[in-house]
Design a protein that fits this description.
This protein is an alpha+beta fold and 100 residues long. The chain is built from two helices and eight strands, in the order βαββββββαβ. The radius of gyration is 12 Å and the shape is globular.
């Protein structure tokens, strides 16, 4: 699993619940996809049964699970190429559902 220190990121919400993460990502994103657990965003493996992935301009907003600390919402900054790659991937995968 990749370390967050390798990326330009910002913590938007911390020590929260899964439902609060999803609602926050929906509120702060233009497009939101619900992906199965195990998907990767910039080599960061998304944990859980499903996980919301949001796109806001050039940023990616994801739910991040830190063992022993709980759930966070983080924003990966200036990820235009990764957003394009993920959108293309999500269009082809019938296990991914667009929720906003």
């Amino acid at each position: 699993m990749a370390c967050l220190r390798e990326y330009r990121y910002e913590i938007l919400l911390k020590n929260t619940t899964l439902k609060e993460c999803e609602n926050y990502i929906k509120k702060c994103s233009e497009d939101v996809y619900l992906v199965p657990g195990g998907y990767k965003v910039k080599d960061i493996t998304l944990l859980g049964a499903t996980s919301p992935v949001g796109f806001s301009e050039s940023d990616i907003i994801i739910q991040f699970t830190k063992p022993c600390f709980g759930f966070f919402v983080i924003k990966l900054k200036s990820e235009v190429e990764e957003i394009k790659k993920l959108r293309d991937q999500y269009k082809k995968d019938k296990n991914v559902k667009k929720i906003k």
